[in-house]
């Protein structure tokens, strides 16, 4: 089996994602920083992870929390200095922790010098580094009409008019995030040297590649099909996701990366691909093709969201979740590809609120069940800061408290197109309460200390705290409790390493009773082992049947300390892993 017989450090690693603004404030200004991360590396080491992925810390006007980069080679002053970053990398390496950084190169900030030059005149040498187009025409009020009808991910048109030269520039995300024109070879080379080469020369161990499927746009940038005639702008993703030259660009960039590292060093790349089919995913992650080591799929974290509008909920079913989660890794069967396993990141709500139960009675145990599920699946495990504490969503926030540009932009677009009291707005707020990106961005709760849980000394954090730190959901409390979610995660990661043959590299994944609306059950194999996993996604005691009554089942891990592996009844939110003999 190919995936078993090609072991790599990055396949077996657990990666801990850090959101710098919200991890640890070392200088009491209300913002996390790189020195704060360095000060907490021993905590990260205690958890038992192998690498950290640090979200963007580069110089930025922060329209989208650092995903709008003004200088790839400079740390944003609020996060510290370049020297602070180099020290963080060095201290992580001393502890055996590798460092992965964000590579955000579909777009930059409008404050980047390259874009400033590009917008200065139609004849500037960097004009073609971005997508500039004249208006399609003018409306009855004389306002310029965008070149096409694409909708931005953050609401409204994907085009912004620039008065200076009388043309629009493309931004599929926020208006201050102009898309690079990857067709321009000179632009690509500059991107590689500034964003990739600089950090490889400063000893990072790899990159998480932001929106890595969007660099190649369809020639001509045609109008999107009209799927919602009630609004002027439509979903245009078919014209800029998995585009015609995307694999060419990734091969070229990987070749550049390898030219910048010493012989024998193996860097890790994980691409935010998001959507596509199995063939797309294999093209990106095939070792032979030489593009990405692995990729993130969004399908399982989007279950229950309308495909037309993220902030419009549709019925969530466990079957849909099972199928979508399996899609993350089934495509690697009998290939030289690899993938990832995750439930949380900086763009997602808290998994226990989304997929488990965040009620006081079941929050901890269902957090442990989700941890058991994650470590049981094939692929590289990613966990997000606070997930190891079982953090849940915050409660009852007004739109004025929301910081995420996606949420505020969608709110503004719905208010403009439908009205404040519309049914569309009601659905938006229902969705925002469950899936706002801000849920994962609240400051990390280091203690129960007022006013900000040890995140800052006494400065007001940049975003409001999740008040659950007062209820024992904080690092200090959990480090004192051997039965905490933190220590369960630590044990789970140890078990994953001890049984890496079946947990990391297992193959031949098979659903058991796929239609069951309470139980998630499957088997998978190695060359000489078979594992059966069963998870109860309900608050009820639930009976289950094993797939082969003649086999001998030995339970080797679960989330209940008092579980009887011989019992065929699961307690609420219980998960068990069995080896079959």
Automatic annotation (TrEMBL):
<comment type="similarity">
    <text>Belongs to the glycosyl hydrolase 13 family.</text>
</comment>
<dbReference type="InterPro" id="IPR045857">
    <property type="entry name" value="O16G_dom_2"/>
</dbReference>
<dbReference type="GO" id="GO:0000025">
    <property type="term" value="P:maltose catabolic process"/>
</dbReference>
<keyword id="KW-0326">Glycosidase</keyword>
<keyword id="KW-0378">Hydrolase</keyword>
<feature type="domain" description="Glycosyl hydrolase family 13 catalytic">
    <location>
        <begin position="17"/>
        <end position="441"/>
    </location>
</feature>
<dbReference type="GO" id="GO:0004556">
    <property type="term" value="F:alpha-amylase activity"/>
</dbReference>
<dbReference type="GO" id="GO:0033934">
    <property type="term" value="F:glucan 1,4-alpha-maltotriohydrolase activity"/>
</dbReference>
<dbReference type="InterPro" id="IPR013780">
    <property type="entry name" value="Glyco_hydro_b"/>
</dbReference>
<dbReference type="GO" id="GO:0004574">
    <property type="term" value="F:oligo-1,6-glucosidase activity"/>
</dbReference>
<dbReference type="Pfam" id="PF00128">
    <property type="entry name" value="Alpha-amylase"/>
</dbReference>
<keyword id="KW-0462">Maltose metabolism</keyword>
<protein>
    <submittedName>
        <fullName>EC1118_1J11_0144p</fullName>
    </submittedName>
</protein>
<dbReference type="InterPro" id="IPR006047">
    <property type="entry name" value="GH13_cat_dom"/>
</dbReference>
<dbReference type="InterPro" id="IPR017853">
    <property type="entry name" value="GH"/>
</dbReference>
<dbReference type="GO" id="GO:0004575">
    <property type="term" value="F:sucrose alpha-glucosidase activity"/>
</dbReference>
<dbReference type="GO" id="GO:0005987">
    <property type="term" value="P:sucrose catabolic process"/>
</dbReference>
């Amino acid at each position: 089996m190919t995936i078993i017989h090609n072991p790599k450090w990055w396949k077996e690693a657990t990666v801990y994602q850090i959101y710098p603004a919200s991890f640890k404030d070392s200088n009491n200004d209300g913002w996390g920083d790189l020195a704060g991360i360095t000060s907490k590396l021993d905590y990260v080491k205690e958890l038992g992870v192998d690498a950290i992925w640090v979200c963007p810390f580069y110089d930025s006007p922060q329209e989208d929390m650092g995903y709008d980069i003004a200088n790839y080679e400079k740390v944003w002053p609020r996060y510290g200095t370049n020297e602070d970053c180099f020290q963080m990398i060095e201290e992580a390496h001393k502890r055996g922790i590798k460092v992965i950084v964000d590579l955000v190169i579909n777009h930059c900030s409008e404050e980047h010098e390259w874009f400033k030059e590009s917008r200065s005149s139609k004849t500037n040498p960097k004009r073609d580094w971005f997508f500039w187009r004249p208006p399609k025409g003018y409306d009855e009020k004389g306002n310029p009409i965008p070149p096409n009808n694409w909708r931005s991910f953050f609401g409204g048109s994907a085009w912004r008019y620039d008065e200076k030269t009388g043309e629009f520039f493309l931004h599929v995300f926020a208006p201050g995030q102009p898309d690079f024109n990857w067709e321009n070879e000179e632009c690509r080379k500059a991107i590689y040297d500034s964003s990739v080469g600089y950090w490889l020369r400063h000893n990072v161990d790899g990159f998480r590649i932001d929106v890595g499927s969007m660099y190649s746009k369809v020639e001509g940038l045609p109008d999107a099909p009209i799927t919602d005639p009630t609004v002027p702008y439509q979903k245009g993703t078919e014209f800029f996701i998995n585009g015609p030259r995307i694999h060419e660009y990734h091969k070229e960039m990987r070749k550049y990366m390898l030219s910048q590292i010493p012989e024998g060093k193996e860097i890790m790349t994980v691409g935010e691909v998001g959507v596509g089919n199995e063939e797309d995913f294999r093209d990106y992650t095939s070792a032979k093709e030489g593009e990405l080591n692995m990729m993130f799929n969004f399908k399982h974290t989007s279950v229950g969201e309308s495909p037309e509008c993220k902030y419009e909920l549709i019925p969530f079913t466990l079957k849909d979740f099972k199928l979508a989660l399996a899609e993350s890794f089934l495509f690697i069967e009998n290939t030289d590809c690899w993938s990832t396993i995750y439930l949380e990141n900086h763009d997602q709500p808290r998994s226990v609120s989304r997929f488990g139960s965040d009620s006081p009675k079941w929050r901890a145990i269902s957090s442990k069940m989700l941890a058991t599920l994650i470590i049981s699946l094939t692929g590289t495990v990613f966990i997000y800061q606070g997930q190891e504490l079982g953090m849940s969503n915050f409660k009852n926030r007004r739109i004025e408290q929301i910081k995420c540009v996606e949420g505020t932009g969608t709110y503004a677009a719905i208010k403009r197109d439908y009205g404040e009291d519309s049914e569309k707005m009601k659905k938006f707020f229902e969705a925002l309460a469950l899936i706002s990106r801000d849920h994962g961005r609240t400051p990390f709760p280091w203690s129960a200390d007022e006013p900000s849980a040890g995140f800052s000394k006494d400065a007001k954090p940049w975003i409001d705290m999740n008040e659950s730190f007062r209820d024992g959901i904080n690092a200090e409390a959990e480090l004192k409790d051997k039965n905490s979610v933190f220590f369960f995660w630590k044990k789970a990661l140890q078990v994953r390493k001890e049984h890496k043959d079946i947990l990391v590299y297992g193959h031949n994944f098979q659903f058991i009773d796929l239609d069951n609306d309470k139980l998630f059950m499957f088997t998978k194999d190695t060359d000489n082992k078979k594992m059966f996993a069963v998870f109860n996604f309900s608050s009820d005691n639930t009976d289950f049947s094993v797939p082969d009554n003649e086999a001998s089942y030995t339970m080797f891990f679960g989330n209940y300390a008092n579980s009887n592996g011989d019992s065929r009844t699961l307690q609420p939110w219980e998960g068990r892993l069995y080896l079959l003999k």
